[in-house]
Amino acid sequence: MAHASAAGLTAARGDDVTPGAMPAGVQEHRRTPIALLADGVRVTLGGVEVLRGIDLALPAGRWTAIVGPNGAGKTTLLKALAELLPHEGRVQLLGREASAWTHRERARTLAWLGQNQGGAEDLLAQDVVMLGRLPHQPWLGAPSANDRAAVEAAMRETQCWDWRDRPLGSLSGGERQRVLLARALAVQAPLLLMDEPLANLDPPHQADWLRIVRRHVERGGTALTVLHEITMALHADEMVLMEAGRVVHQGRCAQGATHRALEAVFQRRIRVHSLAGQWVSLPNEEVP
Predict the structure, then answer these.
(1) What residues have CB less than 8 Å from 40, skipping those under 6 apart?
(2) Predicted confidence (pLDDT) per residue in 188-204, tens digit
(3) Starting from the edge strand earliest in sequence, which strands make up the sheet with 238-243, in order?
(4) Residue 118: its pLDDT value, please?
(5) Separation of alpha carbons 121 and 87, rounded Å
């Protein structure tokens, strides 16, 4: 992609795309149900303030990508929204205070795929995916027919059903990632939060992942992802840009304002272009 001809690329500048201003986005979110809301969220880790008063409203029924340079606080924000880290400020899930949800309710409503997640290496792949069904099962209860059907559907969707009887420890990095994605999908939760989900996936399976996220949204679900693959992130409906523990922009991925903010947060060392009907990010070789 870095060597694509200039004739095939159109820089996202000025009026090349419909510009979007933050006030319009705020107004739109007031009309759209909010899936996740952060109000003054702060997180301090090891004496360092990592999140510095995050105010954010993420619309339901859409895919939002969180993007920013290393150390911006992306993973910390995702964990705070999932209630996996202690924080100051308020978090709401589907219009309800996160603190009001029981652990079981939250586990049924929000599915999590973390960065570099491990698992018991001797567990069979299908047993790992079955862990996603625990919130739906009674204490010490056996999996139901619905649980088994959900596991098979998730493994077939991520194309890992064929090695369901192999131990997790015997799988390659990409195979393992597809099993862990299947575990998250097996929860059948409306909220799907994923931190670096494309790790170890080759390009064909990255494209498969893109289709999976799209299907989740088409079914009425909400997806929130942290991605370093900027071109993949530009496929999302909305983008949240972070820098130094703050949100510096939120907007539609197709808007020129979002493209300019994206370039700025990476010190203009990338540029956003239109290629074959898609937005792509390429290195800006003009910046030393």
Answers:
(1) 53, 54, 55, 88, 89, 90
(2) 999 999 999 998 899 99
(3) 110-113, 191-195, 222-226, 63-67, 238-243, 246-252
(4) 66
(5) 32
Q: What is the DSSP letter of 69?
A: S
Give pLDDT, residue 288: 65
- Are 165 and 28 found together in one domain? no
Q: What is the DSSP letter of 285?
A: T
**What's the pTM?**
0.87
CATH (domain of 204): 3.40.50.300
Same domain? For 232 and 182 the reply is no
Closest residue by Cα to residue 73 from 97, 52, 99 = 52
CA dist 207 → 214, 223, 248 (Å)? 11, 16, 28
What is the per-residue pLDDT across 9-32, written as a single tens digit (0 to 9) for each? 333 333 333 323 333 344 445 578
Parent domain of 140:
118-187
Q: And the tokens for 225?
A: 């992802």
Q: Which two tokens stand for residue 166?
A: 């192999």
Tell me: do 20 and 78 sit in the same domain.
yes
Q: Is residue 286 part of a domain?
A: no
287 within a domain of the structure (yes/no): no
